[in-house]
Structure formats: structure tokens, C-alpha cells
Write a structure and sequence with these properties.
Layout lengths: L2 H18 L5 H9 L4 H14 L1 H25 L4 H4 L21 H16 L4 H20 L5 H26 L7 H22 L6 E2 L2 E2 L4 H28 L8 H20 L5 H25 L2
Antiparallel strand pairs: 1-2
Helix pairs in contact: 2-7, 3-4, 3-11, 4-6, 4-8, 4-9, 4-10, 6-7, 6-8, 7-8, 9-10, 10-12, 11-12
Length: 311
Amino acid sequence: MNWLSWQIDYLLLLQNFRDVTGGIFDNLFLHITIFGEVIIPMLFICAIYWCVNKQAGIYILWNYMFGFITNMFLKCTACVYRPWILDSRIHPIESALPAATGYSFPSGHTAGAVSVWGGSAVAFWKNKILRYSLIILVLLIGFSRNYIGVHTPQDVIVSLFVGAFLLWCTQKLMNWVYNDRESGKRDLLTVVSVSLISILILLYVNLKWYPTDYLNGKLLFDTTHVKIDAFARVGMIIGTMCGWIIEKRFVNFETGNVSFLKNIFRFCIGIGFLYLLYSFDTELRSLLFIQYFTAGIFITLIYPYIMKKYV
């Protein structure tokens, strides 16, 4: 039995379980997998960063940014097709397909889950109930990707290990930056380095060669969306890092001294503005970069400044 065959057998076993049980657990795992997508993690990150704990918010946000740029690089390097392309016997849950874009390896949802919910477990490690609940959530999100049929076990397992490594790296990086007692330039070096690496990955994703396999005269995978999406991701990362360093040096807003109701008000207003930024629909790569760059700066700089001065 080769490496792929046992994974396909495992997915077929889960698929047969779905069929035998009449899909009774389908909605449960479809809802669980949403916690690995963009909307809920971003809402959570904003809530933590704006209203609960600024340093924890930065740690989780950095993990999220580093996680999805690393995941994009690995996906576009490995170029592994989705399970139903690898084996026609695999039939994912139909409603899960719109969110299952891009290459398969490693799992983007699992990467997001480790970054946000795993990062939150690390940030609030002393709270045992919260810590273990978040770790269980990460594992459930990973399993949900197998259950609904859009990822193989290797996609999930590798994402878990890469994500855990990034959690460790991000913690070390933040300690290095915030313990700078001498030069005061480690934050600038970090922003420049992350921005340059992100731009190099953007060029790599858009210029590299991709497989052009056909089935019945139809291209199995069109990389156009992947290349366009790279502009959004890199724009978000650079905007986030630029906003962070400006806020750190010149704004320095604080969390924790505001009433619960005022925090709710702040959060709702901020999310409203963020929704307007994201609602602008375009596939022009330069505009997409600017849109997400602006969103990153809004989260880390513009809205914290507004909160400190006016809200």
C-alpha cells in the first residue's frame, strides 16, 4: 500500500460513514470548518487586538499573516491536486466546494486554525480550560477537512506541524523585537524583512511554472485565481506590518481600561468600517493589493488611533 492509497481509503471510509448515517453529522462539520476560514478568525483577531489584549492580538495576527503566506508558498510549490482529482471515487460534500479553492497541500483551513486558535491557546496559556478547548477546536477543524472530503490526511497533518513551528517562531520573533534595549531598530528590520520576503513570494507565485494537466480536454486546475489571491495576501501582510510599526512608535493605544459596553461599541464600529473596505469587489491585481494593504493598516493603525482619540 503506497502513501496515497491509504489516505484515499481513509477518505472513502469517512465518505461511506456519511452515506450510512444519512449525513447526520455533515452540518456539524461544515460549521466547524468555517472556523478555519477568513471571516470568523479576522473578527476574533480584531476583538482581541482592539478590545482585550493588545500584545496577544499582535501575536495572533502575526501568526495568521505568517501562516497564510507560508501556506500559499507551500501550496504553489507542491502543486498537489484536490482529493477528488486524485481519485474520482472521492465525492466531497457539495456545499464545501466553493471554499475549497487552490491546490490541496497543505490545508489552508488547518493553517488558519493553528495560527488563530492555536495562537490564542499559546497567548492565554494559563487558562487551562480555554487552552485545551482551543486545541480541541484546532484538531476538529483539521478533521473536518477530511470528513467533508476536501483534503487528504497529509494536507492536515503537515499544516498542523508547520503551524505549530510558526507559533514557536513568532513567539521568538516577538520576544526579540520587544526586548530591543539598544538599537531600537529591530521592529524596522522585522517590517522590512517580512515585506521583502512577502514580495519575493508574490513574484514566485506569479512567475513560476505550474502543471498543465488536462482531463477530457479540460485543464484540471487554473492558477489565475491563485495568482490574483497572492496580491491580496501580500497586500494584507505589508499593510499589517507597516501599520503595526507606526502604531508601536507613535500611537501606542492601550486596551483593558474600557467598559465592556464601550468595547462592544468600539468593536462594532470598527468591523463596520472593515466590512466597507472588504466589500469593494475587484480582480485588478494592483487595486486588490491596495485594498488589502489598506485593510491591514486600518486594523493595526488607523482604527487604534481613532479609538485612542475619539471612541
